[in-house]
Amino acid sequence: MNTSLNEKTHAVNKVFEAVFDGKMPSRVPILTNIDNAFCLEYAGYSLKKEQYSIEKTLEAIDVTTRDFDGDTVLGITIRLPQLYKILGAKNFKMGADGFLQHPEVRGMEVEDYDAFIADPVKTLWQTILPRIYEELNRPGFEGQKVLAKAFFTFASSMAALGEGYQKIAEKYGRSTYTMASAASAEPLDTLSDQLRSFSGISKDIRRCPDKVIAACEALLPVCLKAGVNPASSRYNRTFIPLHMAPYMREKDFLKFYWPTFKAYVEGLNAAGAGANLFVEEDWSRYLDYLNELPENTLMVFEYGDSKEIKAKVGSRHIVSGLYPIGLLKSGTEQACIDKAKELIDIFAPDGGYIFGFDKAILRLNDINPANLKAVFNFVHEYGIY
């Protein structure tokens, strides 16, 4: 805990810490996942031009943090267009309006499994990454120069952003905790997302199941290394988006997904890093499994029955999400407030609840900003214990 933080920031941090420690907080905290693209558009900047500027990005996040009474810095940058341009990335492409899209890519072929299982890091560096990032294929020193420039751009940009977030948090008395101190997918999602692709891994599960299992086991220590950094703690948590499981049969989930996913979250816990799971799509079939994860795992749900989720995981874990951002776009202010009240009434009793949305807010047209302001104000007033 940074004792130099101002009094208000320190107090908001303590609200989150109480929840993460399994204690009753003074009120319901608010944790949101809002993209810097939303911030830039809200501040009136050109997304296509200004997202390349760390300075303009921080100015925009300052504006949204000032205008919306959340508990954290309102805006996070997870995609750096300058980095993808340097690398010649295939996995993130800028649309005509400037928004970075993630097309389905495949950096690993079936014939790469044996080498990947034997040494996943070597195979990633020598075979897979050059397929995804075309500029790494430049010969000799040219390719090394691209890599060095990419590392410098990433490190310097993230350092500047981190310093900027800290200043904004203290300027407006917001928490220094965010959705993610680190981010890393669990093994099967890592294998499917950008290595084999969704369609590729779906075929592999049928055609070479033993290799899929072995690849997940080989990836586990790599994912753990990516998911823990020097700042990690049960307060500065690792963000884990969960992708494949809702599209799998339960017997396949138990065979291919669950063993290394559970081991991954347990490994983070053993390393002192809390986990923030983004439980994408509908995990209703798997709630009993989620309840087996280390106590006080934060689970941000996209869909599901609120009362069932509260009953099955709410007494052991921290629940968030489920508030539909679609309502913020099209609903009346009163309808938006009523939904917030409904979720607080279900989840807040006995603690273990953080108010949040079902999806990340990516663009300005995803919501009506007036509704977002009204909901934040209501949660602060109504969510007092």
From TrEMBL:
GO terms for molecular function: uroporphyrinogen decarboxylase activity. It comes from the Bacteria. GO terms for biological process: porphyrin-containing compound biosynthetic process. Gene3D superfamilies: 3.20.20.210. Coiled coil: none annotated. Residues 196-382 form the Uroporphyrinogen decarboxylase (URO-D) domain. InterPro entries: UROD/MetE-like_sf, Uroporphyrinogen_deCOase. This is Uroporphyrinogen decarboxylase (URO-D) domain-containing protein.
